[in-house]
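Thread: Newbie trying to understand structure tokens

Hi all, I'm a second-year student working on a class project, and my supervisor (Dr. K.) asked me to get a predicted structure for one chain before our next meeting. I've only ever worked with sequences, so writing a 3D structure as a token string is new to me. If someone could post the tokens and maybe explain what I'm looking at, I'd be very grateful. Here's the chain:
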Amino acid sequence: MKNLKIVFIILALLILAAVTGKTQTGIDPGHPDTVFVDSVTAFTSGMGIVPVSFYNDELLQAIEITLIQNSPDVTIDSFSFAGGRLTELEYKGYSIYSDNDIIVIYAQTIQNLIPKGNGLAGNLYLSFESGISPQLVTIDTTTLIISLIEHTTNFIDSLPLSLPFVPQYVKGYVDIQESPATMDSIWVENLTTNPGKQIAVDVSLYNERNTMNLSVALDYGNDSLLHLDSISFTGTRGNIANKNIQTSRTNHMLWVLLEYGEATPLAPGSGALFTMHFTLDSLLKDTNLIIDSTTYYTPGNNTFLILTAADGNQKITPIFNYGEINVDIITAVEDITGEGLLPESYALSQNYPNPFNPSTQIEFSLPTAGYVKLEVFNVLGQSVRRLVDQYLSAGVHRVTFDSRSDSYQPLASGVYLYRLSCDDFTESRKMILLK
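---
Reply by user tm_fold:
Sure, no problem. This is what the structure looks like when written as tokens:
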């Protein structure tokens, strides 16, 4: 019964698009709305996991993504919304058609619109038999007509009776390679950081034998809010090599070729090859950004090692472990307690400055350690930002409120309440945001 209800809702939204099998395309009120599929590496002994993301610059009530893969040896297995922007929507799902070559992914909301933003929709899972031939699989968008309803990649904005409009689309690839015969490995560092920060991410190598050349091709998330500033080799194992570096800021890819030479190969060992320096956009909200192996435009420009003549100049595909940048907007809590001066009672101070724009500071005192919540509410009593939700030591603490919501969207001018809760103590105060 639940599945029928979902189908009826989706049909009601899409019936506007079904006129003799043709899509009526509404006007995109802002550009560039985009659906993009990552390019990833898989091995013949495993399966492919492909992140699918989207960017929208207006509120949406529905989204549909229709994808097709082009290999007879590969099957679209499933789609997971876990960890993506659509996880909390009331109605979402997917259907697989045409002998497992096409998937229609849909999400629709009645109460809570899809906010403006950029990030993961979910992960597409591809399966294939062990022993599949190495190949490059394309994940493209397509159009599928079932019972006079046309399924394609489109968005529907928040206005009543809006027609679907077609976003830009960036296709992705799954580079299925021979499973590695050795334990040679390349991995990308995992980091946790905050929006607006500059970060350094190491790419490291473990090699068992002398290595003459190596190539590393990376896709750093296809995310327009993650900016690659530079690449450095100082103090790394890549510093002594001749270097060829190519970047694609449009497709968010990087290719690094390190040539050590037959006479001076990279000796067996482990350590960083180079460091990538990124700047995270200040508008990023809580999300995970993936840095994965890819193919840099040409099939030969991927991730591999070439050994010396003593090992027959073998070309080896190393084991690759992707890296995650965990972006967390939880506000940092500053301990401003003077030495030996613990407060005698709980207290919540008036924010300063007040009124404020764009930020203000809130101080509170804890006579004993405990689990603390500090939340901001609008005048309707709805929580718009959780500033603190953690265990804190006794003392005087200060946090900065940047006038943004939990989804990292700017809040409107007006009166807001902030409330401190710890053990049996609760206190609230008013503050005014003026823009």
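A couple of things are worth pointing out once you decode it. The chain has three domains: 2-177, 185-327, 334-433. The domain at 185-327 is CATH 2.60.40.680 (Immunoglobulin-like). Feel free to ask follow-ups in this thread.
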